[in-house]
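REVIEWER CHECKLIST
Item 1: Sequence provided? yes
Item 2: Single chain? yes
Item 3: Sequence as submitted:
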Amino acid sequence: MNDAPPPLSPLSAPNQAAPSPPPGKKSGCGWIGGGCGLGCLLALGVMIALVIFAVVGTKNFLGKLMDEYTATEAIPVEAPVATPEQIAAAMAKYDGFQKGMEPGGTPVPLELTGEELNLLLFNHPSFSALAGKASVAIDGDQLTSRVSLDFADLPIPEGFFGDKLKGKFFNGDLALKMGMAAGRPSLYLENLSVNGNPVPEAFISGMRAQNLLENAHKDPQFMKLFDRIEDIRIKDGQLLVVPKALP
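Item 4: Structure as written out by the authors:
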């Protein structure tokens, strides 16, 4: 028997804009959509990817298929194994970058391995929106993330789905590509699997066209962060963030 979920309908509009997260959705790193640094930037990108999947997916396939692409329980996301010294070193590296980005600070580049980024996800307050809910890996120039999120925690428009997503969890794996576009940070979804099953190409191809940080470009607080960044990308197995030099 083939246990793979039924195919999703292709997106009717490949360039459909991502739904804007409504104000007032609180997370551990501040108001989602508000400015709070790189931690929220990554959390926002992941959350927007899942919102697009939920909103567009529900519009394009029958409600009975929701059970195939959601779960009634979260899956455990294991904390990385590290010594206190390794955790402290990763946090000090990130804090030094954050301090340099503050007014009067001296900007310094930030380089993080996948292991260091995981330590931040589980231990640093700036990444608390994803603590215990996501882990990452970096391979070459690609960032992958395994997530287990309650749909109730995502900024999905209220009343849009009725009861379809109540008590449901998204358990999946995302492949993301980060870089610069028109002088500003960009984040694109490359692949997505749910409950161990790849989302069909006909569906995922439309999502690839959407810059997950598009709406963040309209937020004044995020723009303060973007305007300070010269380059951001995944390269040679590391996350690299290069701030602009002081004038």
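Item 5: Key structural point noted by reviewer: Residues 37-243 form one domain.
Item 6: Recommendation: ____
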